[in-house]
Amino acid sequence: MVKRLVISLFALTLAACGGAENDPAPSASAKARTIAFAETPAEGVDLNQVAKFAFGAEKTGSSHPSAAFGSYAKGCVSGAEQLAETGPTWQAMRLSRNRNWGHPELVDFVQDLSRKAAALPGWEGIYVGDMSQPRGGPMLSGHASHQMGLDADIWMLPPKRLNLSVAERESISSISMRRSAGAYTNSSWTPQHMEVIKAAAKDPRTARIFVFPGAKVAMCNAEKGDKSWLRKVRPWWGHHYHFHVRLSCPAGLAGCINQDPPPAGDGCADAQQWVNNILNPPPPDPNAPKPKPKRAIRVADLPGQCAAILSPR
Ligand SMILES: [Zn+2]
Ion ligand 1 — residues with CB under 5 Å? Predict the structure, then answer.
């Protein structure tokens, strides 16, 4: 009974997402992992079959060919590569989470973006937040997506140096770019932030970029030339300590399901509507369906290949 309580408390704590960059206690995932495998499974549930525990326990990529299976919020990645912890123009942050893994195309993308960022004044490169777990899949904390090795969080904090120690990478926080609950950017936002996001959006491998609404509107207003790249930049909750880049399925991967493309157009009016709703929230819809409690994703809910790439236990 006590044991089960501990597990559910952890589930609650870890379910809280967003602002994960601020979390100075990355040991939570390690702790949860220990609990997952040290405890008797809760009644009727084999924790090995709860996908976040099974995938959260993997320490390395699988030895299969590189492929992404399923969808961004229900999938996995085989043959993932680990982004080097430090490169000439990047550092991976929060190494204890072991989330600097991805499909090789994502690892290439991150390195390419870091070189573009390093060319900007005030930016030595990029600090890379969560990518995927070594075999992708659901995470113990923080994200619903990032499961196929095709999503990466890039910190908004401009790197001043790229020799942060492992300990510093656990303790340093990114910085928020928002004001008025995300309706506007704050004084930390610079033209270089826009340039980094623009470079990410213009990359043909990118499907979408998520950032808080005020940043999208700020970029819509600042862009005096071709606005078409802004189509890929989508307003979303959170995303003021980092922006999130989502790549399209790499060519030739039959098991990888792309999201529908963003609506046609630059999406600037839509982003402005998000901002208006932040400033003047519409009354709650009395007919809105109540959110259903979500059952944890099981290994069996994922594409069959995902069970096949887990380590034998
Ligand atoms: Zn993200």
Answer: 153, 244
